[in-house]
Design a protein that fits this description.
alpha+beta, binds zinc ion
Amino acid sequence: MTFRVEVVCLHEGGEQRCSVAELDRAELVLETLGLSVAEGKSTLHGIQEFVAVQQVIEDLRRRRVCPNCGRRYHSKDAGTHTIKTVFGAVEVPNPRWESCPCQTEGPRTFRPATVWLQEAPTSPELLYLETKWASLIPFEKVVDLLKEVLPVAEATNSQTVREHLHAVAERIEQELGEERPPRDFATVESIAELPLPDGPMTVGIDGGYVRAAHKQGNFEVIAGRSVVAFRREEGDSVPPPKCFGFVQTYDQKPRQRIWEVMKSQGMQENQQVVFMSDGGEDLRQVQEYLHPNGEHLLDWFHITMRLTVLQQQVKTLQADRPDEGSASSKQIVSIKHLLWHGNVDEALDRTDNLLMDLALIGRQSAPAEKLAAGISDLRTYIGNNRGSIPNYGERYRQGETISTAFVESTINQVVSRRFVKKQQMQWTLKGAHLLLQTRTKVLNNELEDVFRRWFPRFRPKAQTDSSEQKAA
Ligand SMILES: [Zn+2]
């Protein structure tokens, strides 16, 4: 049997028909049931072309007479415009008309489609899909994915996808406005004067490296996550954590960037901000630039990570010397316990004791020597950050944040998974920075809202809500 897919345009009593596909079906096997992807793609492309052209013809018909005097515009030349959509490239009429004689000023001819077309080469929805997926997976993979399931234009390649993402990111960056002066941030005095804002806002900052293009080595990328601990008003929901990222040596407005993220989570002018990091000196400097009056704490996540690594080294020692191994393991557990309660001095004493025990056997045991080196690093780390180690247990009981990297490190979520997994990937400062902007919008579930702001009829919100309800 044969199926013919026909599109019918009904308009003002008349109708316009177009056959877009014909499907032949003989013997039924599982793989010939219904439409194949290829047939689906070509059918969608056919429908898209017909619908788009009919829409444009109708729009031109409505614009055909001068709104001033009612005279019909004369045609200067025909012309077309190709626009890339999710269902393929479509060529639509884009004529040039002569201006009406009743208008003495302005250009002699004009293109009426410019009003809605704005010379855009790509539809918002395609731009959205390309940007969203390129924020999550490599550019070449996005091209593979789109081409495999949608009838996107054959000319789509990783370079065009990259350019589209950059254009979106640049527009997001422009909307950010100018860098914020440091005086805008609350001082301890002003915090005391004003009524209490919502629960402490904690910003975790992490740094990572990505490989630079043109054999320029590596450059640093900063990633952060902003967390609100609780709301003062009962029943107010706590907003989800949000992440941000930037290339320090490229970004002109990191303060404004982080300000906008915190503002979207309900930050108030007198909000006190607690910064958390792994305690590295360079990150401390970034934090001081971002928020001169912020408090600095060591992220509990980074302490536990270090202790976990040490416990792994203990296992090697345990295999070698079971008694000393289990004794060391107990000591590390107790160091962790002391740090959890902010007892830095006792934790350092315990560390020294453990180092002495290990020194006794270190000469005869390579694993003990290796563990001692690790413990010694930990001692330096704790000592350097002693002013940034609070009573985590107390904070935790108060419902305050002790870590912004609950499941995995912020740098891994924001940066590593897209930037460094494939070693051959190389980045320019600008390219990395722009990708971080769209990537964080996607991770924060904000990209759709951005597009909705730019294109008010893009994926209407009420519609998505009701379909979500149905799905639930
Ligand atoms: Zn006129």
